[in-house]
Amino acid sequence: EAGVAQSPRYKIIEKRQSVAFWCNPISGHATLYWYQQILGQGPKLLIQFQNNGVVDDSQLPKDRFSAERLKGVDSTLKIQPAKLEDSAVYLCASSSTGSGNTIYFGEGSWLTVV
Amino acid sequence: GQNIDQPTEMTATEGAIVQINCTYQTSGFNGLFWYQQHAGEAPTFLSYNVLDGLEEKGRFSSFLSRSKGYSYLLLKELQMKDSASYLCAVRPHGEYGNKLVFGAGTILRVKS
């Protein structure tokens, strides 16, 4: 079974530039998550999708971050304009619907803003 | 609010046993997860507890006490490859789907 796919793996941009990350979840998983993990911290949820609808985006900085999952499968997370403090790993994860189901993470997209 | 505490770092010797503690204060509780994360890699699922008691899975065991807001991950027969960060995560009660709130992680260093 293929895991959660993410690209690009690494990205370096200057502040005020834009960047986009792509994620393809495990086949059949209805729930997709984007987490931000700053070095030395645990992952923090940015946004959660159920199919193509947003379930929780309470911690997404909406003035600069946006995400979509138009067809309920793959998803894109965009940052525009980037700030230095956005330097982090952006982890995409997915799970099937239901209580207790395991969340599976992708390998992450490493962003450095200089 | 949500607060999850775990030690920042621990060191143990190959072949030994180590216990990583996690305490939590959340707006509700509907399960506690442990993940392992090697440097530069994705977190991988280790264990899940929703009822009080011990869950054993090979060299790894996880314990939960809901009344105390406490869990621990027990690693036996430590191997060098167990050097990693161990993340404690709680699913608050009533949250749709499986949203998890993570602690900062405990970096475990296994020495020979």
Number of helical stretches of at least 4 residues of chain A: 0
- Tell me the Rg of chain A in angstroms: 13 Å
First and last CA, distance of chain A? 37 Å
Question: How would you sum up the global shape of chain A?
Answer: globular
Q: Order of helices and strands of chain B, N to C? A: EEEEEEEEEEE
The strand count of chain B comes to 11
Fraction in helix of chain B: under 10%
Mean pLDDT over the full residue set of chain B: 92
**Assembly classification:** heterodimer
N-to-C CA distance of chain B? 41 Å
Spans of chain B of at least 5 consecutive residues whose pLDDT stays below 50 are none
- The percent of residues in helical segments of chain A reads under 10%
Largest interface: A-B, 26 and 25 residues
Largest sheet of chain A: 7 strands, mixed
Strand content of chain B: over 45%
The radius of gyration of chain B is: 14 Å
Biggest sheet overview of chain B: 6 strands, mixed
Low-confidence stretches of chain A at least 5 residues in length (pLDDT < 50)?
none
Note the total helix count of chain B.
0
The count of DSSP E runs of length 2 or more, i.e. the number of strands of chain A, is 11
Can you tell me about this structure?
The complex is a heterodimer of chains A (114) and B (112). The model of chain A has no long low-confidence stretch (mean pLDDT 93). Chain A is 0% helix and 48% strand. In chain A, the strands form two sheets. In chain A, strands 2, 4, 5, 6, 9, 10 and 11 form a seven-stranded mixed beta sheet that branches. The N and C termini of chain A lie far apart (37 Å). Chain A is built from no helices and eleven strands. With 112 residues, chain B is mainly beta. Helices cover 0% and strands 54% of the residues of chain B. Chain B has strands at residues 3-5, 9-13, 18-25, 32-37, 44-49, 53-57, 60-65, 70-75, 84-90, 101-102, 106-111. In chain B, the strands form two sheets. In chain B, strands 2, 4, 5, 9, 10 and 11 form a six-stranded mixed beta sheet that branches. In chain B, strands 1-3-8-7-6 form a five-stranded antiparallel beta sheet, with no helix packed on it. The radius of gyration of chain B is 14 Å and the shape is globular. The N and C termini of chain B lie far apart (41 Å). In chain B, 36% of the residues are buried. The interface between A and B is medium-sized, with 26 and 25 residues.
